[in-house]
Design goal:
The chain has 23 helices and 27 strands. It is of the alpha/beta class and about 725 residues long. It has a 6-stranded mixed sheet.
């Protein structure tokens, strides 16, 4: 599983898969789009392309040869089954694959028409509109999307409660649909249970994840899409995870393998037992069944094997944020078929980079703890202290723990069906000790290592360590505490916890002659007592089932909507699940508005393209001119990170401009200044610096119009009626 907030689900050690791609390669993901024009392809090439696109669509969640229920309800085809449906699926898959090939660029419908027969025009429109308004394409934080977001907010007003991943995703999507949005957040920061903390001082810093940490499964993961849009490197969590006993010795490989094999076999047996028990299986816990089977099959009989077996139990409790005595034997793994494939990754610099990008430009009011939510036929009202906020609809994204505590008063009360589901589902706990050290004493080659505990009751205490030195900027370790140990952790003094974890680290590395220094700084989490979460992430408790996730996701009277990791049956307890739930609810709100109108939504007028004349006109008056390089920027902002365009001219013939080769790229004002600092070097040197050091990608005229049309339009419009203040001419 994953880690949404305070969570941190690591890949289960027993279920690791080999990755297709060893390392994340940004350049391999976003290919130039100028080759998309229609061209002759053989039958074999078309069949291979269609098959590849079907697999990409499958990874996103579309069946190979069927429609989603949402597609059927949307009426994307006139008749189910038959040729039209088959043709629609091919077109749909093509659009999905086309956008996924370059997620930094807003995919226009005209671009699809270039590669799909005009006979399928109605299918292009049906598939494109469905994918766009259901969050399958053109979502995220690419700076090139700004020109496609409407400014009028004519669709209605929505209040979003909570600025976690779900709330941020929904708010951005709703704004792109033309809604007026305000986000109310009780904390002083965005992100919710995704919380990156900067540790250290005096020139030594590290970014450490106190909440959601691992992007679990990169294939088709929307968080991977965001990372690509922001060009943030991802570090694959390496498979090597040595286990140490209490004496600091590495557990014997043969014993480790045998116990792990037995543990997995018992999980298989659990599946067989629950099939035999039928509905009665939901009345017993996973822990009870596992222990009965362990004794029955004689697994982990001696004390050393039992410690190792307990480690696997602790890892299972970590993956589910719950004690095994609470997990449903029948449905604890109901989301397994939907797990994202691919590598499990850390985000370089911390997950705050995604959070900040999602929050940028959103109307978020911090310090607004919600006391009451009122909803009725005339609209909604949110009470926060002495303030009241009114709108047409409300999206509640608070954690399940807050709903369980009934911290928010709903008027009228929530339907009994929904409240019962809230009470049935489990909301567990994972805590951490984050430590910044003077050096990486554990070795550069480890991302994780585990430690056995002597007693079963303590099996989850510091059982697993994450090493963040590869991505955090400093020698940082995070010790995880799961299960019953996480609950005791909440009421234990930090000094006592630090003493215990340091004792464990020194018992491992001391016998090897490695001196374990005192940490520079430590942080102990308390997610269970956090008034804005009251826990870490959800699980299926005894008596509950996956259906309860669906019930939590149900809207009330088409006024009150819900999102968050505990509202997604397929991806609970994950960061990407929270994000996807926000996109889902934005689409649901849009559909409600369409139905209330009694006619299909009129598409918001978005940018549809600029001509080459507009581009040429911009570069007649560049903001910076330096040899063969010229730059244009938006004059309405002084943000050094604001994006602009650079043009590189080759083989300039003044008497015949048509012979001039011109290539373009995107640069920020800050990067342009760095390029000028290269000095009076040759144009070739500057071009090399731009490509190698700044990571710029050059493109031709057609490509820049397609890729950067919105940016060109924004700059051109900003220049109208304004005098340029940033003009630098250099020879």
């Amino acid at each position: 599983m994953d880690t949404p907030s305070s969570e941190g689900s690591a890949p289960r050690r027993t279920l690791r898969r080999k990755a297709i791609r060893k390392n994340y390669d940004e350049n391999a993901m976003d290919e130039p789009i100028e080759t998309s024009k229609k061209k002759f392809k053989t039958k074999q090439q078309l069949e291979k392309e269609t098959e590849t696109e079907a697999l990409i669509a499958l990874s996103v969640g579309f069946p190979i040869d069927e429609l989603l229920e949402d597609e059927i309800r949307a009426g994307v085809v006139r008749e189910l089954g038959g040729k039209e449906q088959n043709d629609y699926i091919v077109v749909r898959n093509h659009i999905v694959a086309r956008w996924r090939s370059n997620v930094r660029v807003w995919l226009l419908k005209d671009r699809i028409r270039e590669s799909v027969s005009s006979e399928c025009e109605h299918l292009i429109s049906a598939a494109y509109e469905f994918l766009l308004f259901n969050g399958y394409i053109n979502f995220g934080v690419s700076p090139l999307f700004n020109g496609y977001i409407p400014e009028d907010g004519s669709e209605g007003s929505v209040i979003v409660v909570g600025a976690g991943l779900a709330g941020l995703a929904a708010a951005r999507q709703l704004l792109s649909f033309g809604f007026k949005v305000v986000v109310l957040e009780g904390r002083s920061r965005p992100g919710g249970r995704v919380y990156t903390q900067k540790m250290g001082g005096k020139g030594r810093f590290a970014a450490v994840e106190l909440g959601g940490s691992v992007i679990t499964g990169l294939h088709a993961n929307p968080l991977g899409v965001l990372a690509r849009q922001l060009a943030i490197p991802l570090h694959k969590v390496r498979d090597h995870c040595p286990l140490y006993n209490s004496e600091g010795e590495v557990v014997d490989k043969a014993v480790d393998s045998n116990v792990e094999f037995g543990f997995n076999k018992l999980l298989d047996k659990v599946a067989e037992v629950r099939e035999m028990m039928g509905g009665a299986a939901n009345k017993v816990s996973l822990g009870e069944v596992l222990e009965t089977l362990r004794v029955l099959y004689g697994v982990a009989k001696d004390s050393e094997e039992r410690k190792l077996f307990d480690w696997h139990l602790a890892n299972l409790e970590y993956a589910n944020a719950g004690c095994l005595s609470n997990l449903s034997a029948a449905y604890w793994d109901q989301d397994d078929p939907y797990e994202m494939g691919g590598d499990h990754c850390f985000l370089a610099g911390g997950n705050w980079r995604l959070i900040n990008a999602l929050a940028e430009g959103l109307p978020i009011l911090y310090g607004k703890r919600v006391d009451a939510i009122k909803y009725g036929d005339r609209g909604v009202e949110v009470v926060s202290g002495s303030q009241r906020f009114q709108g047409d609809m409300i999206l509640c994204t608070v954690p399940l723990g807050v709903l369980k505590k009934r911290c928010i008063t709903f008027e009228p009360e929530l339907p009994r069906r929904k409240q019962a589901a809230i009470d049935r589902l489990g909301f567990g706990l994972l805590n951490k000790v984050a430590m910044l050290f003077p050096s990486v004493f554990w070795g550069d080659d480890l991302d994780t290592f585990g430690c056995l505990n002597d007693s079963s009751i303590d099996r989850g205490e510091f059982f697993l360590f994450y090493a963040y030195h590869t991505v955090s900027g400093g020698p940082a370790l995070v010790a995880l505490v799961a299960g019953e140990a996480a609950q005791r952790f909440e009421c234990t003094e930090p000094s006592t916890l630090l003493h215990r974890v340091m004792k464990k680290l020194r018992s491992i590395y001391g016998p090897k002659g490695v001196v374990v220094p005192d940490p520079i700084q430590t942080i102990c989490t308390r997610w269970g007592s956090d008034p804005f979460s009251y826990g870490s992430y959800s699980h299926v408790r005894v008596g509950s089932s996956g259906v309860d996730y669906d019930i939590l996701a149900e809207s009330v009277n088409n006024r009150l909507f819900f999102a968050g990791e505990a509202t997604t049956r397929q991806h609970p307890a994950t960061m990407h699940g929270a994000y996807l739930s926000g996109l889902r609810e934005a689409s649901r709100i849009q559909r409600v508005v369409n139905v209330s109108r009694g006619y299909p939504r009129k598409p918001v007028q978005r940018y549809s393209g600029v001509s080459n004349d507009v581009l040429e006109d911009l570069f007649k008056r560049p903001d910076i001119a330096s040899g063969q390089l010229s730059f244009v920027f938006n004059p309405s902002t002084d943000d050094p990170k604001s994006l602009g365009l650079v043009r590189v001219c080759f083989d300039s013939f003044e008497d015949d401009p048509t012979n001039r080769l011109q290539l373009y790229s995107i640069l920020s004002w800050e990067q342009a200044q760095k390029l000028q600092e290269v000095g009076e070097s040759s144009n070739e040197s500057k071009l090399t610096y731009m490509v190698n050091n700044l990571g710029s990608k050059l493109m031709g005229g057609n490509a820049v119009l397609d890729t950067c049309g919105a940016l060109i339009s924004v700059i051109a419009n900003a220049r109208k009626g304004r005098s340029r203040t940033r003009v630098v001419a250099r020879q």
